[in-house]
UniProtKB/TrEMBL annotation:
Its cofactor is Zn(2+). It comes from Saccharopolyspora flava. Keywords: Metal-binding, Oxidoreductase, Zinc. PROSITE patterns: ADH_ZINC. GO terms for molecular function: oxidoreductase activity; zinc ion binding. Belongs to the zinc-containing alcohol dehydrogenase family. InterPro entries: ADH-like_C, ADH-like_N, ADH_Zn_CS, ER, GroES-like_sf, NAD(P)-bd_dom_sf. Pfam families: ADH_N, ADH_zinc_N. This is Threonine dehydrogenase. Residues 10-343 form the Enoyl reductase (ER) domain.
Length: 345
């Protein structure tokens, strides 16, 4: 089969690789019908050393079950399914607590160099815990929105949930990528009264306004912090949803959060050390939340409003390609020419 392989920063190829097959009784074999390129794929695309490659790419998928192992009970051949960006068994103590990204038998697609969703097919371990059957046809117009349930929507929603967004909250979202925009949609869904979106790309922030942003701040750094504090009435936001992952974004979050507030991070941090002392978090009683979103925990909750059309998270996709177009898709996203690329293998 054909699959996307990254050799090093800037070098993405589509190549023939061995066909996946059932290896364990809990596996399912899935033919991928929709995948995508993630903003987080741009981190390795920007800086992966050749020593980390070659690595198969992609962690978001919708597909059709082709075959199941003897112990798989919840999906069968022919089912259309969505898979989160992390595999989970659905039964361990973390899965039962709704933290499937800490599953004791789990796996992140990104941590397996021999598996990736930007490909024609994939072996899904722990199919019962990982896959969710979708009640639509493979060519449904709802596919883009359903594909966001495998990562970006669930991730934005997780940021808002663990940040404690509730009715009346004042929220700032940092980052106008797909996760940031869907964090806006999520904050709106949870009843936030004010949602300030910090981003500089007008086409994206316009979609952010459509998703529920009440204000947009294009300024960065000190200027951006001042602007957000002004908009919030002087003291900053109750909850800051940080959807970028670099140090300037963290500093921005510390700058705009209100005393007693929460910084909720879902942008993959590109740093290990950050200010947490008296002048940053401790003095103002600010809490830090977030991490890899257990998107599997949110699929059943977020699927109905997608199915009835009351929300359209799939609007974050502004380009579609086949597998051959994936290398260019990476470059276009890196150049900010496109927001998020849908891949139809
Ligand atoms: Zn588990």
């Amino acid at each position: 089969m054909r699959a996307t392989v990254m050799y090093e920063a800037g070098d993405v190829r589509v190549e023939n690789v061995p066909d996946p097959k059932i290896e364990r009784p809990t596996d399912a074999l899935v033919t991928i019908t929709a995948a995508c390129i993630c903003g987080s794929d741009l981190w390795p695309y920007g800086k992966m050393p050749a020593s980390d490659g070659p690595a198969r790419m992609g962690h978001e998928l919708i597909g059709v079950v082709q075959e199941t192992g003897s112990e798989v009970a919840t999906v069968k051949k022919g089912d259309l399914v969505v898979a989160p960006f992390a595999v989970s068994d659905g039964t361990c103590e973390f899965c039962r607590e709704g933290l499937q990204t800490s599953c004791v038998n789990g796996l992140f697609w990104d941590s397996d160099k021999n598996a990736g969703c930007q490909a024609e097919a994939i072996r899904v371990p722990h199919a019962d815990g990982t896959l969710v059957k979708l009640p639509v046809a493979v060519d449904s117009v709802l596919i883009p929105s359903m594909l966001t349930l495998s990562d970006v929507f669930g991730t934005g929603y997780h940021a808002a949930v663990v940040g404690g967004v509730r009715r009346g909250s004042k929220v700032t979202v940092i980052g106008d990528g797909a996760v940031g925009l869907l964090a806006v949609l999520s904050a709106k869904r949870l009843g936030a009264e004010q949602i300030v979106l910090m981003g500089r790309h007008t086409e994206r922030t316009d979609l952010g306004r459509e998703f529920g942003a009440t204000d947009v701040v294009a300024e960065r750094g000190e200027e951006g912090v001042e602007r957000v504090r002004e908009l919030s009435g002087g003291h900053g936001s109750h909850v800051v949803l940080e959807a970028v992952g670099n140090m300037p974004a963290y500093q921005q979050a510390v700058g705009v959060v209100r005393p007693g507030g929460v910084i909720s991070r879902v942008g993959v941090p590109q740093y290990e050390e950050a200010p947490v002392g008296f002048g940053s978090l401790f003095g103002p009683n600010v809490r830090l939340a977030g991490g890899p979103a257990p998107v599997r925990a949110y699929i059943e909750e977020l699927l109905p409003p997608v199915l009835d059309g009351s929300i359209e998270p799939g609007k974050v996709f502004d380009a579609t390609t086949d597998l051959d177009g994936v290398p260019n898709g990476y470059q276009d996203m890196a150049d900010r020419k496109t927001l998020k690329v849908l891949v139809k293998p």
